[in-house]
């Protein structure tokens, strides 16, 4: 191979690698969108929404829910945790008409499952070391789900299989002081 081709391939590999670590690009404007006024996609999560602050969920905006959606589900997790992906929040059966999850609340009628703190609530970022990524993953579903109150992320994902119309994500970063 010539040196020019090797350089181009190296640059492409580096771009793909960085895109993979940061969670890629935010969704396009005409598709399901998840955002927060508290932090930008691939931005830093404010201390208020972490174990070093008040530890409440940030406000979340939902836009462009696809036609035919019967319910929404949300999973917040940290793939950088030392013991494997750590689950911070599990929600399902949210009304597809919802436009916002307000700070320190969860939508009326929605169900909260069990997080890895063994609680049915939002628990914010609290990495033991370094900077971690926190994925807020929203799913538009063609059904409502029948799950028990203590359902886990794994049980939610299994129940959603074959029912996902569209999904969106928002990534935030946090490093403890």
Question: Would you give an account of this structure?
Answer:
The chain has 177 residues and is an alpha+beta fold. 16% of the residues lie in helices and 30% in strands. It contains 2 helices and 9 strands, in the order H-E-E-E-E-E-E-E-E-H-E. It has helices at residues 3-22, 153-160; strands at residues 33-35, 43-44, 60-63, 71-78, 86-94, 100-101, 111-112, 131-141, 164-175. The protein has a 6-stranded mixed sheet, with helices on one face. A 3-stranded antiparallel sheet has the order 1-3-6, with no helix packed on it. The longest helix is centred in the first third of the chain and has 20 residues, at 3-22. The chain starts with a helix and ends with a strand.
Fold topology:
Layout: H1 3-22, E1 33-35, E2 43-44, E3 60-63, E4 71-78, E5 86-94, E6 100-101, E7 111-112, E8 131-141, H2 153-160, E9 164-175
Parallel strand pairs: 2-9
Antiparallel strand pairs: 1-3, 3-6, 4-5, 4-8, 5-7, 8-9
Observed structural traits:
177 residues; 2 helices; alpha+beta; 9 strands
What percentage of the residues does DSSP assign to strands (E)? 25-35%
Low-confidence segments: 5-11, 14-22
Give the C-alpha Rg.
Answer: 17 Å
**What separation lies between the terminal Cα atoms?**
47 Å
The average pLDDT value, as a whole number, equals 88
Structural class comes to: alpha+beta
Please report the total strand number as a whole number: 9
| Fraction of helical residues | 10-25%
- Major sheet: order of its strands? 2-9-8-4-5-7
N-to-C SSE string, H for helix and E for strand: HEEEEEEEEHE
Number of helices: 2
Q: So what's the overall shape?
A: globular
> Main beta sheet, described?
6 strands, mixed
